[in-house]
């Protein structure tokens, strides 16, 4: 016996990877390579890609251009589309809609935080350097 915990009102269900998936049969996990979408999506991030979604303007998508996969933001026009990288060093691509295929819509990018490369020393006052 005892009293209920006051923290019980704040309990949340555990986070599950399945919560990120709307269409399980059409969802893929893909590892990002390259820096075309930095600073938003980084090299090595895991992308959750849903192939059942229709992309909206400015959504990140995976497109196939000349048999190469690329990650870009899409801006649709009547007969063409603009494919933009988040990294300003990459040029915008204005292509007719039949010059590329949309492979899937990126719904999440899972980013790994890098561990420090040097040992962290502790100061006497408890502040880390």
Termini distance? 47 Å
- What is the CATH C level class of the domain at 23-110, in words? Mainly Beta
- Report Rg: 21 Å
Strand order of the largest sheet: 1-2-7-3-4-5-6
Report the CATH architecture of the domain at 23-110.
Ribbon
Instruction: Count every helix, treating DSSP H or I runs of 4 or more residues as helices.
Output: 0
Describe the sheet with the most strands.
7 strands, antiparallel
Strand content: 25-35%
The fourth-level CATH homologous superfamily of the domain at 23-110 is Umud Fragment, subunit A
Characterise this structure.
It is a single chain. The chain is mainly beta. The chain has a domain at 23-110: Umud Fragment, subunit A (Ribbon), CATH 2.10.109. 0% of the residues lie in helices and 34% in strands. It has strands at residues 27-31, 46-50, 60-65, 68-76, 80-84, 93-96, 101-110. It has a seven-stranded antiparallel β-sheet, with no helix packed on it. A hairpin with a 3-residue loop joins β4 and β5. It is extended. The termini are far apart. The model has no long low-confidence stretch (mean pLDDT 88).
């Amino acid at each position: 016996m005892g009293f209920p915990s006051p923290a019980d009102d704040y309990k949340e269900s555990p986070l599950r990877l399945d919560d990120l998936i709307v269409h399980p049969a059409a969802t893929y996990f893909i590892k990002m390579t390259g820096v075309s979408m930095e600073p938003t999506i980084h090299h090595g991030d895991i992308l959750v890609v849903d192939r059942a979604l229709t992309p909206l303007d400015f959504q990140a998508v995976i497109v196939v251009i000349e048999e190469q996969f690329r990650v870009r933001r899409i801006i649709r026009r009547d007969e063409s589309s603009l494919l933009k990288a988040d990294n300003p060093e990459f040029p915008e691509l204005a292509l007719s809609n039949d010059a590329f295929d949309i492979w899937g819509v990126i719904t999440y990018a899972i980013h790994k935080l890098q561990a420090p490369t040097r040992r962290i020393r502790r100061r006497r006052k408890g502040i880390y350097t």
